[in-house]
Write a structure and sequence with these properties.
The complex is a heterodimer of chains A (about 90) and B (about 240). Chain A is mainly α and about 90 residues long. Chain A contains three helices and no strands. With about 240 residues, chain B is of the alpha/beta class. Chain B contains eight helices and nine strands. The complex binds guanosine-5'-diphosphate (GDP) and magnesium ion (MG). Chain B: It is an enzyme of class 2 (transferase).
């Protein structure tokens, strides 16, 4: 099944529940009409929150950069000794 | 007795004269006694990358370092296909030449595959003990945004979709690569999403990614637009 169909299926299920709520008037209808808006807004908030949290805890590795520079120096040393041209950095 | 696996490491290069020498040294340093070959697919780099590779062949042997060049810059996706045709290993590892993918992680890819019997092991930067160095805020923001979008809409089952440091069982790579049409940035994402949809067993290992020290990046430009197009394309075709 194409992935878009799964998402559409999910949307249909959610709308079915919503229509059910409207019909059964479990919640006051003025509120029920706004539910999709709430849903979209909370989805947006979720997205921004996830990006924000991801940014705050973005894994970085400054020590890796230093280790890499050591490895580069070691590799250059070796290649130079073997007569390869590793000039110009 | 357990048969010893052979690994083919495919490295696409374009203007990586300095990097390729350093990278090959580090690969040999970290894989020592393993049975492996390095396949370099160079797209006619004007900076003398191929000269360097020939010198490396003298040093390490032509049966360990294979130069499979192409006449002109034909793009990354087809470079992997081209290298794959010449691979003789049971497993294929793909990595960048620019030292953003450090060969010290190769043993952990191989170990993970052996432990789990996975079809694919993919490097991820976005978990504990993974990480990135050298990105500015904008680059981090787009990366996080892209990731949240993909996780929300595609449910891919892996945490790092656009990374390109991966180990594949050879037959699996051959199967997946033939169904992939995207190019550039989206290529890696399509590869892993299609593999995941086909039901292949995918495992992750943490890697760190240090932005390139030498040379310039060949991707870029309208990356964000391409990414969004790729995302929609994958929604409808996978
Ligand atoms: N053969 C080949 N290699 C390429 C091409 N474009 C990029 N590469 C190589 O692919 C790898 C990743 O490219 P890079 O410019 O570092 O991309 P970035 O890390 O996403 O910025 C490097 O090893 C490049 O040399 C191409 O058109 N042909
Ligand atoms: Mg790079």
């Amino acid at each position: 099944m194409k992935h878009i169909l799964k998402i559409l299926g999910l949307l249909v299920a959610v709308s079915a529940v919503w229509i059910g709520l409207l019909e059964a008037s479990i919640v006051p209808s003025s509120h029920a009409w706004l539910l999709p808006v709430y849903l979209i807004v909370s989805l947006g908030c979720y997205g921004f929150l996830m990006v924000g949290v991801g940014l705050m805890f973005f894994p970085t590795c400054p020590q890796e950069a230093q280790l890499l520079h050591k490895d580069i120096a070691e590799a250059k040393e070796f290649l130079k000794k073997k007569g390869l041209d590793v000039g110009l950095d | 007795m357990e048969k010893n696996n052979k690994y083919s490491i495919i490295i696409p290069t374009y203007n990586e004269r300095l990097n390729i020498g350093l990278l090959v040294y580090l690969i040999f340093k970290h894989l020592r006694e393993l049975d492996f070959e390095v396949i370099i697919v160079d797209d006619g780099s004007p900076d003398g990358t191929q000269d360097m590779v020939k010198q490396l062949q003298q040093l390490y042997g032509e049966e360990r370092i294979l130069l499979r060049a192409r006449p002109s810059k034909l793009g990354l996706g087809t470079a992997y296909c081209h290298g794959l045709k010449h691979a003789s290993g049971d497993f294929v590892i793909i990595m960048d030449a620019d030292l953003s993918h450090h060969p010290k992680y190769l043993p952990s890819f191989i170990r993970k595959q052996k432990e789990t019997g996975a079809n694919i092991v993919t490097g991820t930067r976005y978990v504990k003990s993974g990480g990135v160095h050298g990105w500015n805020l904008m680059r981090k923001l787009t990366s996080r945004g892209a990731n949240v979008l993909a996780q929300t809409f595609l449910w891919p089952g892996v945490s790092d979709l656009t990374g390109s440091f991966r180990l594949y069982k050879k037959s699996v790579l051959e199967d997946v690569i033939n169904s992939v049409v995207s190019k550039g940035y989206v290529f890696q994402m399509e590869m892993i999403v299609r593999a995941s949809r086909k039901g292949y067993h995918i495992e992750e290992v943490p890697i760190t990614f240090v932005d390139r020290v030498y040379g310039t990046s060949k991707l870029g430009g309208s990356e964000i637009v391409e990414y969004l197009k790729g995302l929609i394309y994958l929604l409808f075709t996978t």
